[in-house]
Amino acid sequence: MQHPRSYRLKFPEPAPAGPVDHLPGSSATPAVLRVRPASPPPKGPPPGPTGQAALKLEPRELWVAAHLPQLALLALRRPGDTRPLVAVDDQTQRIVDADAQARAAGVCAGMTLGAALATAPDIEPRARDALRERELMQRMAAIAAAFTPQVSIEPPDGLLLEIRPSITLFGGLRELCRRLRDACRADALLTQVGAAPHFTLAPTTLAALAAARAGARCFITDPAVLPARLKPLPLPVLRWPAEHNARLAAMGVHTLGELMRLPRAGFARRFGPELLADLDRLLGKRADPRARLTPRERYRGAFDLDHEIEDHERILQALAPMLAELERFLRVRQRGITALQCRFHHYRAAPTRCTLRLAAAEASAERFTRLLRERLATLQLPEPVRRCELRGGALRPLSLDSRSLWSPGEHGHASTGEMPSLVEHLRARLGPQALYGIRRVAEHRPERAWCVAEPAIDERAAARISSTPASTVSRPAWLLAAPQPLEAVRGRPRHQGRLELLRGPERIESGWWDCNDVQRDYYVAKNGAGALLWIYRECQGSRRWFLHGIFA
Amino acid sequence: MPATSDTQLQKLLAHPSVWRGRSRAVVETISTGFTALDAGLPGGGWPRHGLVEILTPQPGIGELYLLLPVLARLSCAAPGRWCTWVSPPHEPYAPALESHGVALDRMLVVRTGLPLWALEQALRSGACGMALAWLPRVSPRAIRRLQLAAEQGRALGVLFRSQQFAHLASPAMLRMALDPVKEPGRHGARVTLIKSRGGSRAPIDLTWTAAAA
Prior knowledge:
Chain A is 27% helix and 25% strand. By secondary structure, chain A is α+β, with helices and mostly antiparallel strands. At the A-B interface, α15, β15, β17, β19 and β22 of A face α3, β5, α4, β6 and α5 of B.
């Protein structure tokens, strides 16, 4: 077998990424592949040109492919660009894509950066931003997900939707396609970068993708006409490796029609069974299952500010579109979040983080804004903010309640529904530690007979625990955080004057097992001012007196 | 003609938001749990919403015992109402509250450097039936704000202050001084209404039945 390099002199090597502009009959004069829709699917398998294999097409499938031409450039374009833009691969230092201006100046994909700069010195080369490209495609996928659950991304710049089950719902195929196109046009992010996706419809994924990449008009519902309609498409739309394309070109195969005419056995021997399988998938002779894209189950958003800002109100304004998007994200899933993290990036300093914790799952942008306002008021920013990031926590089921007719507290209306919002509101400003509920613990040691608990704002959790029968021993309503030593005169304790012991002793002796041994004699005492105190005397050691509680 | 205007006037005067100095105000109330105090207070109990000031010569002379019955009643009602404690001087002791029938899962304690703000939020939100606060220093303006917040959120706000502020004017709807009873063998307190919309002028003696003795 001859080395493909020897053919390079004769035939121009197709670009590896297969930009549309290089293909014959692409952008300027699109090959028109147009078939009237809605002809019923054929009953028997139609004979294909290479049709030894039986047609295994699922006639139920209909794929829409969306192709974003020049995605690498779209991802790099910024508002206010005037110079010719080229996208450069960071590793190979070769041009990945060039815009119309740059192409007019003689730059084309596949050139080295040096050659391109020599050809057109005023171009603006930018390193390819794969992350941003993925972000754009994910945005497209998110839009598409409103039309069908079967959405998959064909990296880097293709999107596939299986729409057959959705046709009736959207009132016909044409209406569905129109709505899909309108939804993409209405999207702010896509419009901002100037993305103009090209849509095609075909019964197989590869056929739809191939036509979309070629920029051809394609609206095929009938698998029988597929081979005939695919014939004029150029070979590189299949995105096979460049060396195979070069070898095929050397063999005089330039279009899909010519490719389909090749004998199967020979083709498989020369190019491997994988490419033959691809060809079968293209014509629907082999199943082509696609993994469904599962949308991200956490919200993430970021926003680069035009200029640095410090003012809290302005930061909130900048966050507003993202919060609205977050609300949409949550509403379509009927979910809420209980945590929301904001990151503010600065020029030099490390990003400032601020996390909102919500008492109950919430999806309302207005609520987030209100809480963020409180939170930001206490937040110290080391430097002005350049970029804001929002990260939503795990999704939680959102409980939807109907609003009450009465305002809280009126006519015995249960006001407990407002409690989560009050707790969040206070916590947003005062910090999570500032609020707590209290709970009883079955313990003899007084300081351990209670503990701090999370406020029981969850109604279901607050199913009333039948209160234990009131204990017969009396306990003070106030407990001092730490027992306060009392001075004693001749063994008699004093606290704002002499203490008169009213009752006692009550011996509490417990806790030898956890090294917090307590051996105390408790008394109820009254001081000169008339306050009732709860004091104790140690049973061991120096037998000092302590004040532990107040019967207030 | 005079008869009609008289009935109209009577109707107008019966409106809860109209109060004349000589008469008792018509307010929605909840029993204090002390018969003597109920009799002395306008409307026969604590106001359901509004601000109450309790002035004590020193903390810890029984001010909580005065409120434990109403706390128990509110928190154990069919939809239990929440009670917020803002900056209490010590820890509210769970076993004691429980033995007085208070539902602990309706208690919320807030410790903060901004007690005034927290109290106003709690009163205004409508989530709490009651909010207790220990504030070292409050201006009459702030009390006015709190009074309005309590009316708006339909909550009972209780402010504990020192008796040294008794002579200062306050917009709270009810002000009372609480003095300990120093007689031996009796545990209780003496309540004097400093300001009320038609309450009793005479001091009211209370005995803590449920208390330590």
